[in-house]
Amino acid sequence: MIEITAEVRAAIDRAAGDMEPAGDEYIEPADGLIHCKKCRGSRQTVVPRFRGSGYFMPRCLCPCQQKGQEERKAMEEQKERMERIKRRKAQGLQDRYLYDYTFANDNGQNPVMEKAHAYVEHWKEAYRDNTGLLLFGDVGTGKSFFAGCIANALLDRDVPVLMTNFPSILNRLTGVFAEDRAAFIASLDDYSLLVIDDLGVERNTEYAMEQMFTVIDSRYRSKKPLIVTTNLKLEKIKNPPDLAHARIYDRILERCAPVLFSGKNFREEGARATKAAAKEIVSKG
Ligand SMILES: [Zn+2]
């Protein structure tokens, strides 16, 4: 607002007849303008007329109105963010059970989970440096749970993640025109993190190998991180049986840090616990 000189003040007072303060407003004697009863701030300002003489006194927001507007905007943004996260989860976690793969549901039995927490904590660096993970080890050692926890935690932080597997991808690519296939594979790189669960369970047909290579190669070129889980032995990944496997595994090994899942079979343990609990309930009955 400009300085209220005697000339300006005279203009304000001349216009005063047209000013109509609302119920929560009053005319401030000090400057002759409309103010807010609540915060006593100005709800009117003075602006010189463009290329003319005189002034006009447009309305403006007082501090408490501005605060209210900012709060409404923040609430609106928060709501949009939550809706976006919900949408991204529906898109990124296509299998319902993945919703339960969260840090909150971790029983704390597997020490390797610390690495999942660390990956999420250092996500910015991981993304910047294109650091992926290769989670390998026997069936039921918690690799998918580990990857699912990272996926959920990042999705909750508004990061686009897709957790999928090759059978689903191949299914999606079947009977589709080449250009749609290319578009679909490219769309996988829109996700900041791509998780491919259970590499190695798909059938090794020439077609499947070709599509797998295209997906992995496209990801490799996108310079965005990839997490792969597999029951394959690291030895086998490092010494692939043929060239078709080699060009897929080489790209994975180049970008994904191997993490070994060893020892306990958590799935069996879970099954044992369930059986034990069931037995207890039955014996009590
Ligand atoms: Zn106010």
TrEMBL record:
Coiled-coil positions: 65-95
GO MF term list: ATP binding
InterPro entries the UniProt entry points to: IstB_ATP-bd (IPR002611), P-loop_NTPase (IPR027417)
Pfam families: IstB_IS21
A GO BP annotation: DNA replication
Domain IstB-like ATP-binding residue range list: 87-268
Record keyword Amino-acid biosynthesis present: no
Keyword Coiled coil belongs to the record: yes
Keyword list, A-Z: Coiled coil
Name of this chain's protein: AAA family ATPase
Organism of this sequence: Parablautia intestinalis
Lineage start: Bacteria, Bacillati, Bacillota, Clostridia, Lachnospirales
